[in-house]
Amino acid sequence: MQPAFPPFLEGGGETGALIRSIDWKEHPLGPVDQWPPGLRTVLGMVLTSRFPMFLFWGPDLFCFYNDAYRPSLGKEGKHPQAMGQPGARVWAEIWPAIKPQIDQVMQGGQATWHEEQFLPIYRNNQLDDAYWTYSYSPVRDETGCVSGVLVTCQETTAWVRARRDMEEAYREKKQILDRISDGFFATDVQWQVTFWNSQVEKITGVTREVILGKNLWDVFSSAVGTAFHTTYLEAMRNQEPATIEAYFEPLNIWVEETVYPSPEGCSVYVRDVSARLQQEKSMQDLSEELRKKAADLQVRNEELEQFVYSVSHDLKEPLRMVNNFLHLLDSRYARQLDDRARQFIHFATDGASRMRILIDDLLEYSRASRLHPELTTVDTAALLQEIIRQQQPLIQELQGRLLLESVPVVRADRVRLAQVFQNLISNALKYQEPGNPPVIRIGAADRKMNWEFYVQDNGIGIETRYFDKIFQIFQRLHLREAYPGTGIGLALCRKIVEQHGGKIWVESEVGKGSTFYFTLPK
Ligand code: ADP
């Protein structure tokens, strides 16, 4: 038959039942009905409380606890044998830490409060790291002496861990956001700044100590009403990201800001783009300057070509007169003159005829610059045959050979294209070692967007360093006595080819020959 228990031991769930099942007669506390009133009162309260409580009682600090406390003891640990056992045995692993606290209460009678105290506990077959927030309160017996310590406690391990994880996550997030090269900050819906990374500190000069927790628009009051302010408000209202690039006067910088709104607030990426804009601006200035210079140069060039044209034109008439009179002098007075005088007339006539050639070439060159090409369909095979026919006497005299390979029909200015071929062919015949019979090959290759023509010779060749120079006007590589010429021919060819939208260049090897290439768009 079950012994009857006094009312203070009724109920109490699992732990209540545990106390009742213990044979207290064998225990130093003795039978339950002889327990001191203080112990009965407080144990009755502990067992019926829904708050986790633990009681140390008597000089041996016998342990009691309730159902609410029970989960903290875990499985395979102190429960159920801890009930009624001396504290030193139950809490051996932390006794050195808690015994002084218990003594303090037992001796001083003052309650203590400990928050998130780290006190590992043996449970679940292992020593578990655990945190506790607890209070020790003295429990007095009927004589008024402190006979026990009531522990009201809450295990805060889960909470401490969660807070630590959160702090860790926050630290990680902060580190990431601090490392990104953009400025970054966040606010809540009230515009209170919740995050401010070091990059945005640098850009704005405002430190996080100053701004965290403050209203963004209080700190940057001068931005209220500006485009920035409007963009932020609109982004929040529409809950749509928005980007703004504008001059931020208070800091004298250009910034690009992207606002990402959310119902909790907004995140903002800030980039100082002053340097980029400065660079863009100086590039723009530079290209504008270049454009002006190019236009200026164009005008001057046109003026110069106009001048060359009129001077050459005006020179033709007096030159013709000089020539005519030299002829007259020679035909009428030659017999009255001595050999030396006749030689002088010969030199003068030679000079005048060279001058005529130079003026004609110059006129050709400036005419090509002044007039736009008249594009027609040109059968280059027919055109080249005509040119070859004209050059035939010279080719025969030099015992040369001219091989015409397949060439296309193109859109070009017929007269000017003829000038290009004439110049290239006559150079190919001219720039030869004396006595070397010229072999010239003319043809074209299909290059998808263009026709690529070539005029190849077996002449003296050109040094690589002169490949560009020879296309400039008056640039010659030889003395007039060795190879006559004005130095205008290739410059004229380049002008004509470029007017047609093509390119001209040379490949050559000294002593082996040269190939001149030029393209015409299809
Ligand atoms: P010119 O023939 O009146 O001197 P060009 O403008 O036609 O003027 O040619 C410029 C220079 O390029 C020539 O003086 C010559 O030195 C070189 N050159 C042109 N064509 C050839 C070629 N086929 N072989 C070697 N040199 C050439």
List the helices and strands and how they pair.
Blueprint: H1 13-21, H2 37-48, E1 53-57, E2 62-65, H3 87-90, H4 95-108, E3 112-118, E4 121-123, E5 126-128, E6 131-140, E7 146-155, H5 157-179, E8 183-188, E9 193-196, H6 198-204, H7 208-211, H8 216-219, H9 227-238, E10 242-248, E11 253-262, E12 265-272, H10 274-333, H11 339-370, E13 376-379, H12 380-397, E14 401-404, E15 409-412, H13 414-430, E16 439-447, E17 450-456, H14 489-499, E18 504-509, E19 513-521
Parallel strand pairs: 14-16
Antiparallel strand pairs: 1-2, 1-7, 3-6, 4-5, 6-7, 8-9, 8-12, 10-11, 11-12, 13-15, 16-17, 17-19, 18-19
Helix pairs in contact: 10-11, 11-14, 12-13, 13-14
The protein binds adenosine-5'-diphosphate.
Residues 423, 427-428, 431, 457, 459-460, 462, 470, 476-478, 485-491, 514 line the site of adenosine-5'-diphosphate.
Explain what the structure shows.
- With 522 residues, the chain is α+β, with helices and mostly antiparallel strands.
- Helices cover 43% and strands 23% of the residues.
- The strands form five sheets. A five-stranded antiparallel beta sheet has the order 2-1-7-6-3, with helices on both faces. Strands 9-8-12-11-10 form a five-stranded antiparallel beta sheet, with helices on both faces.
- A hairpin with a 3-residue loop joins strand 18 and strand 19.
- Helix 10 packs antiparallel against helix 11 and helix 13 runs antiparallel to helix 14.
- The radius of gyration is 54 Å and the shape is rod-shaped.
- The model has no long low-confidence stretch (mean pLDDT 90).
- It binds adenosine-5'-diphosphate.
- The site of adenosine-5'-diphosphate (ADP) has 20 residues, from helix 13 and helix 14.
